[in-house]
Batch of 2 targets.
Target 1
Amino acid sequence: MCGIVGYVGREAAAPILLEGLSRLEYRGYDSAGVAVCTADGLSVHKAKGRLHVLSGMLDGGRAVQGTAGVGHTRWATHGAPSDANSHPQVSRSGKIAVVHNGIIENYAELKDFLQKQGVPFASETDTEVVAQLVEYFYENGKADILDAVGRCLHRIEGAYALGILCADTPDQIVAVRKDSPLILGIGDGCNFLASDVTAILRHTRRVSYMDDGDLAVLTREGIQRYNRLMQPVEMEITRVDWEIDAAEKGGYEHFMFKEIMEQPDALRRAVFPRIRDGEVFLEDFSLPDAYIRSLRKLYVVACGSSYHVGMVGKYCLERMLRLPVEVALASEFRYMDPIVDEHTLVVVISQSGETLDTMAALREAKRLGAKILSIVNVVGSSIARESDEALYTWAGPEIAVATTKAYTTQLAVLDLLGLYLSKTLGSLDEAERRRILDEMLLLPEKLERVLAGKEDIQYFASRYFNLNSVFFIGRNIDYALGLEGSLKLKEISYIHSEAYASGELKHGTISLIEDGTLVVALGTYGKLFEKAMSNILEVKTRGGDVLALTAESRRAEMSRTANGVISIPDAHPMLMPLLGAAPLQLFAYYVALMRGCDIDKPRNLAKSVTVE
Ligand code: F6R
């Protein structure tokens, strides 16, 4: 949620900030703004709407002078999208400007305090409190800016990544991070801060991940980092090894489509290096065998699509490990007094590695004594760094708000984890384990075949894109896949959609089926194919239109009953969701395209959800 960027160097800051923000817009796109230090004080420009509105106002940044500045793209929390509520938020004298990602939880109390001191407020945001409070300490305590920021940090509670400018120190930016992502970029005669690497990759590959509670002062000559006690700390510098093209559309109309098509390669990266001579190798995996043997259960904790991966995982992991696997929404887990102890392995799944609910659940599980293994896409992200073990999905940057390649690679890594643990536990028949591993190596090629059939899916989308409501049904692993298919469709096309376990239809849901209701019936799980067929008949008898997803070997049979059939290559039952996800993603994509929706940036959403 919200993207922030900062630059201090020798070049004009505003064009660099705007270009950086264009790569962060996926994080929020209600409004945007920049503040730049000039000879006459801070020059602040903000506009409601997409970044291009601001960019147009500023002639791509050329209209603003100054070589140090901060920028922001917003996903509104406190106060509706408006020019006044956009960031940067400035203090009453105009000397302090702040960009913020996160939420200041005690802002109301602080605002009250400041108002009683006569400080007038110009916005409804929690962020303005930071700007006013820094100025309050700066003026009242006659402190320098760093002291003033330090004192402000003692008073604010919540999550924040902050970029702070002060007109009196025009060649520096103060950066602060707590529970919201922030990285520092080390350039040549210039330095950067950003919510994520993509914003600065054009300028530098050398980055330093800030720790929670860290503060940094950036000048063009260098960066000084401090810990929460304001003691100077060494900067550990990491080199980013992926290319900027990975975060560009590369000729595709939408990031989502590009990312769907990238899935075979993403799977190759996630799977191939981890299977050698019929065994699973997990890099840097250090959980001892004795610990694995002491496990009594696994808990998968995640949000949204990552949670849906956990739902598929429950079916697969329980079969592989013969241990109970619970799956919880991270936002629920932290408040449900979960039964977790040192014999529980908590598997945390997150594309961004920054989702606040997931991070909070991770900390709660740690507090309860569990070990944390995370499956994460963004390298160096907070969740990866706070886990006992982090397995990367290596899907590359995912920019479209709706996840696709992260989902499939998360599934693959979770399967690999299950296979790895099952070897230590001796819980899975060896021949079966080998068969799954061999089949995993075939997945990328099979997925290429699925994607090559995209025109068929486009055709079905053209038949159904005008509907108001769609149901997804399936049993077992297909039900778990249906949850994701339904989320994809609703989040980007705004069509109302629900996923149900097929067996539950008769317990209530079937009353919703009437003439012409579209039901996407998932029947990829061979063992329950006959049951899937019976449910399809029940739906058809009541006038429903059935679009079925099944294995190639079942296509003919399915075609006799369903109104339309999409088929995917046969594979081990546990791997079918890895192939079945792609047609559902494409269906959602084409439906949204035909409805004229903003596919990469659906309304009200943001990619990295760093608020509770
Ligand atoms: C849906 C989607 C979201 C995310 C969820 C968790 O397409 O992308 O539901 O899956 O916000 O995000 P991460 O995986 O970054 O923790």
Target 2
Amino acid sequence: MEKIQLKVPATIANLVCGFDILGMAMNEPFDEMEFRLLEEPKIIINHTDSFGLPTEPEKNVAGVVILKILEYLNLNLGVEVSIHKNIKPGSGLGSSAASAAGAAFGLNKLLGNPLSEKELVHFAMYGEELASGVRHADNIAPCIYGGITLVKSSDPIDIIPLSSPNLYVAAVHPQVEVKTSDARQILKKHIQLKDAVTQWGNVAGLVAGILKNDHALIGRSMNDVIVEPVRSILIPKFDMIKTRSLELGALGGGISGSGPSIFMLSENETVAQNIVEMMKAEFTSIGIESLVYVSKINNEGIKLI
Ligand code: HSE
């Protein structure tokens, strides 16, 4: 196989109450990646976007994943990767996971699929570790498997793909910077048992709602008494946007990953469109530009194009 091209989806981690364990793939936005094997043992990374990400393989999210896979398979060959990111770094929409998962998936395809999906998750987590200092798989898993996934455990890796409800995602990315590492740093290290009990109820309710395709249960389970109260202070207008989204008909939603993006789920496209218009207007009113997306849940994950 000479060359392959991929479409790599944005993902929403946590799904509000499932910190580091739940995630969902979207149709929009997505990155494009192109891979070519080289006879010379070197890794070339080209960025065709304007984000100025590093191109040295050891400092690049895709680069470290490729290095680890080549080392594991004991292969002395090279790879050229061209990356066009539409998922902005630092958006909370799984930008680093897209590069990491795309690199693992793309190289595996070029090599004739020597690795299982579970192994792809394992190697892609090296990219997440480089980006945020933590090996979490809640963006990587839905990026690779598609739909909504549960990371039952990341060590050892145990991924449970869940069924995908037929829902719309409304997402806004306000142009303020929130680094995942900072958004993790501020979290409390200890939680109250009563909060844990509430959160367990919500996570279990959300998973049950997804499996039963019970939209009302999904909506009332998307509550977070542990992470959101701390992180939401980093996002201007968060509380107001959440309240207004629910008034406009959202089932529920909250911070996307570590923010600053906010997402809401709804049963129909018109509601999702109304929500993103409101979100954009709220940020514009305080002088913050934003990007908005309306998308179905993406059931396919990374796709060859
Ligand atoms: N689960 C991670 C977090 C996702 O919330 O920090 C980061 O993209």
